[in-house]
Amino acid sequence: MAISQAEAQPSGFLDEEIAEFRSNRDLIKEHLDTTQRLLTESFSKALSPEFSAKLQESLKVNQLYRGNQTGSSDSSKPCIIIVGQTKSGKSSFINELLGGTFVAQSQSPCTARVTRLTYSDRIYVLVRSKTGEQIGDVQYLEKPTIEEDLVKLKDEDRENDELISSTVEAGIKCEFLRHGIDIIDSPGLNENSSLDSLTLGAIDSFLPIIIYVIDSNSGITVAVQKDLTTIKKTVLGAEVFYLVTKMDVSKDTEQEANRPAQEIEEEKAERVFSKLQRLGYISPNETRDNATSSFASRVGK
């Protein structure tokens, strides 16, 4: 499944999908409003406060109502959340998805912050607190790339609780984002508790699209398993799309293995897919051919 297939859709395709998403979102919100009103007003007259609270918890109303927690000023937007270990190819994938070099690579997960990419006619970067308030001034940029020094924390800021738990919002002029989808670029999980909290807050948002990026050369490591378990525990029933990167095979490797590159790439993808199945992340009834809604691989960095 090549990423370019998504970009090859008719120009109005994404607009239609976003319109349908917003319609469904508004319908869900309407039902949530009604449920919340019944629980807090009508039912509360007949039920004890303790039982009413327990009922709300069992129905997960507050969890569904929470909305996006990444500090964006527009929490109603659908968002694609890119998660994965360090150097797994997240930034490279985002750049390919957006059709340009918008995110600098080689960010350190211990110092980088969660970054939300949103559409803007004028390129800018700003920092938001964990409650959404803007911190400091907006920086307007001439170049479209969000450089690493705009995302990572400076050495003197690593003890600043407000900045550690802040998020970076980057406005870029990109056709993909113009349709109303934001992208959240997250550092790897299990590196910093504050960063983990922000990333998991985004995952536990209102109807997120979660893409977990896996380096085919490393495969399903213990750290990857820990990430996936944490994600599944954070959002019960969460649908995760698994993207396997770095599938390319060098000429030297091809010659050493005495096998065609395509055969080696297929083997790498199958190895990751099979382990995801054995661990229960992908249904045992699925194959790579029919699991296109949850699994894909791409050649590249």
TrEMBL record:
GO terms for molecular function: protein serine/threonine kinase activity. InterPro entries: Dual_SerThr-Tyr_Kinase, Dynamin_N, P-loop_NTPase. Keywords: Cytoplasm, Kinase, Serine/threonine-protein kinase, Transferase. It is found in: Cytoplasm. Its main location: cytoplasm. Residues 80-227 form the Dynamin N-terminal domain. One of its GO terms (biological process) is positive regulation of ERK1 and ERK2 cascade. GO terms for cellular component: cytoplasm. The keyword Chloroplast does not apply. PANTHER family: DUAL SERINE/THREONINE AND TYROSINE PROTEIN KINASE, DUAL SERINE_THREONINE AND TYROSINE PROTEIN KINASE. This is Dynamin_N domain-containing protein.
